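Just scan my protein:

. . .
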Amino acid sequence: MPFFSVIIPAFNRATLIRETLDSVLGQDFKDFEVIVVDDGSTDGTAEIARNYSNVIVVTQANAGPGEARNVGVKHARGEYLAFLDSDDVWFPWTLTTYHRVIREHGSLAFMAGKPIVFKGLVPFGVSSAPIQTASFPDYLSSGDEWRWFSVSSFVIRRDAILAVGGFVSAPISKQISGEDTDLTLRLGTSPSFVQVLSPVTFAYREHETNLVKDFAKRLAAANYVIKQEAAGRYPGGAGRRFERYRVLSRHFRPVALGCLHSGHVTDGWCLYRDLFWWNWQLRKFRFLAAFPALAAWSSLKQRFA
């Protein structure tokens, strides 16, 4: 069995999938398999992936990236699953870095890689560097900082992701763009969690079709995850509730503010209401005080536009 299974969901990425696959197949570390799950593409993405003899291609009707990743998990044989989106790229040392971190920290459940953001051409001049990490007993204990950047940063032990049921599945996976936040919360108490601080391990391509730019799906994801927390579906119980609030509030304060910037003032107020008590306990008084003023200003702009 390979040490890593690299899982790449793809939907209409014919113009980008070659760069992604070439970056994976150019790894210095060789003990891995590559699984591309084509999520109902209509532009020939699957055919391009099939031109690579050492890439496993699985196809499905369009069901969203979460469901595509779950299909990849079902086909994976590796001890660890490394996720990469079909518009992002790795560097030659990426899997070497992940393998060394795993060996140094033991059988960790969840690791997050280090990103660099780019537009257009893949960045040149990025070089490897000594490995630096931050390690924690589990993800919930990782503090009030951003610890990961998109699913392309995820490396998860296969039995750990199976134990929590994988990503959200269809039809929810087609309606939200926050399946990553939901999964990290469900992995929240799985021991242990490591964040790679150095070197850079993947390049995140910023462009107009990034799912994160789909505001409606971001808002739907926030509402979905908040309801999951309210229903007690995340691990840790009452004793670790504050840690979950810290993680969730960090993710969804920007969404609430995004509601105002995009003219969805009512949605913003609803999200502010749902987050209020969490942010009060976290002493995020600056956000709690600033939001009403920003909402009033947004309403005035809409009225006189």
